[in-house]
From TrEMBL:
It comes from Kaistia soli DSM 19436. The keyword Hydrolase applies. Residues 254-408 form the MurNAc-LAA domain. This is N-acetylmuramoyl-L-alanine amidase. One of its GO terms (cellular component) is outer membrane-bounded periplasmic space. Residues 1-36 form the signal peptide. Keywords: Hydrolase, Signal.
Length: 430
């Protein structure tokens, strides 16, 4: 079991139980300014709408969730399954809640978590421990010196009702996806497109060091440094899946790379793991079979990011499985391995590496069939020495230089080898 999962469970969720719930869908939230996040994990109020307390009261017959706000607001409530939970979406909220808020629940709610889910949009996720329906949901305006209050009442219901509500929500989501903007046209200026993906963000903090350092902040700072260096060369158009404290789903990250015709996708992380002696950079590429148990556990942890953020997890079955697509996937994986080995080669002289620096596992974020993709673990926040490096400006600059050289070398080798045939990962020295 990963330390990251333990941190999530102890800090912001109770065990995720498979139960049932019922939809009560209100009007959608309107956009507003986003809330920033400080190093300790609390969202710093950056809007006029601030949440300063939240609690769960009641019992198994009726459970009420209450959040104190500085003003009234619109919101939407909907259910999700696998695991089952009730989600509340609001416009941008500054969360200034007491330490430990949401760790424990009551009645039908086992725990809850909260944070930014995208630009100008915040989310509360209620983990339920019995089949529930949303009996009432409303906002009380401020009165007699009291704060405005967001109230959601839950009562027991049947699994059949919950299943129907989930189907209704998923149908609405699919309609929204179908109406989304068309892909960006491919570049015509001769530059290569590199997508840098800072992991986690918003409601999903990622790993949390004992000191309170958040993975989502560490990787965003590093990604911005790399992007600046790559852009300075003039050879690349560099795009970032997120440039602020926003949550992006795993599927959304893959879709972003594909719709922007990326030539390379690099996801940046700084994980945690059992055992403080585990440290060093690791480069992961996609495989159905993990290199070892540790690689499998880290991939399993990363693949749960959507669940923890209250995102509906659906498998994309739109790709037709035929020999041409299978060949494209194989070629893409080979390119990814070449990049990984170039990355290790550039990091090795100046950056500490994990004992098995190149690993493979089934990371969902690496599954674009037509975009070479790699996940770079910069180090482990569970190790104090790694944490010092990860938060060091000098280390960040040095490591970003190494990644920039790895990208340059990868594309030089790719161009050279694709003129004569399929790329061969074995030609890259480690």
């Amino acid at each position: 079991m990963l330390l990251k999962l333990t941190t999530y469970q102890s800090r912001c969720i109770a065990p995720l139980l498979r139960v049932t719930a019922l939809l009560a869908l209100l009007v959608g939230a309107f956009p507003g300014p986003a809330a920033a996040a400080d190093e300790g994990g609390l969202s710093v109020p950056a809007t006029t709408l601030v949440a300063h307390d939240a609690r769960v009261v009641g019992d198994g017959a009726r459970t009420r969730f209450v959040m104190d706000l500085t003003d009234t607001t619109t919101f939407a409530v909907f259910p999700l399954d696998e695991p089952d939970r009730v989600v509340i979406d609001l416009p941008g909220v500054g969360f200034a809640l007491p330490e430990g808020t949401g760790h424990d629940g009551k009645g039908l709610v086992s725990a809850f978590r909260f944070g930014q889910i995208s630009a100008g949009k915040s989310r509360i996720v209620l983990d339920v421990n019995a089949p529930v329906a949303i009996d009432k949901s409303f906002v009380l305006p401020p009165a007699d010196g009291q704060s405005a209050k967001l109230v959601v009442d839950l009562v027991p219901t049947s699994r059949e009702s919950f299943a129907s509500a989930v189907r209704l929500y998923r149908d609405k989501e699919q309609e929204a996806v179908a109406a989304s903007a068309p892909p960006v046209p491919p570049p015509s200026d001769g530059r290569l497109r590199v997508v840098i993906d800072p992991g986690h963000g918003g409601i999903d903090s990622g790993a949390i060091a004992k000191s309170g350092t958040l993975e989502k902040n560490v990787v965003l700072a590093f990604a911005k440094t790399v992007a600046k260096k790559l852009e300075a060369s003039g050879r690349y158009e560099v795009l970032m899946t997120r440039s602020d404290d926003s949550f992006i789903s795993l599927g959304g990250r893959v879709a972003f790379a594909r719709s922007h015709h990326a030539d390379l996708f690099v996801s940046i992380h700084a994980d945690s793991f059992w055992g403080e002696d585990v440290r060093g950079a690791t480069i992961y590429t996609l495989s159905d079979r993990a290199s070892d148990k540790m690689a499998a556990q880290i991939a399993e942890s990363e693949n749960k990011s959507d669940i923890l953020a209250g995102v509906a997890v659906t498998e994309d079955t739109s790709e037709v499985s035929d020999i041409l697509i299978d060949l494209a996937r194989r070629e893409t994986k080979n390119f990814a391995v070449v990049f990984a080995r170039n990355m290790i080669k550039e990091l090795k002289p100046n950056v500490r590496l994990f004992k098995h620096a190149h690993q493979q596992a089934g990371f969902m974020v690496l599954k674009a069939p037509d975009v070479p993709s790699a996940l770079v673990e910069l180090g482990y926040l569970s190790n104090q020495d790694d944490e010092k490096l990860l938060t060091s400006d000098a280390w960040r600059d040095k490591t970003a230089d190494a990644m920039t050289r790895a990208v340059d070398n990868y594309f030089r080798l790719r161009v050279a080898q694709t003129t004569t045939g399929s790329i061969d990962p074995a030609t890259v020295e480690q």
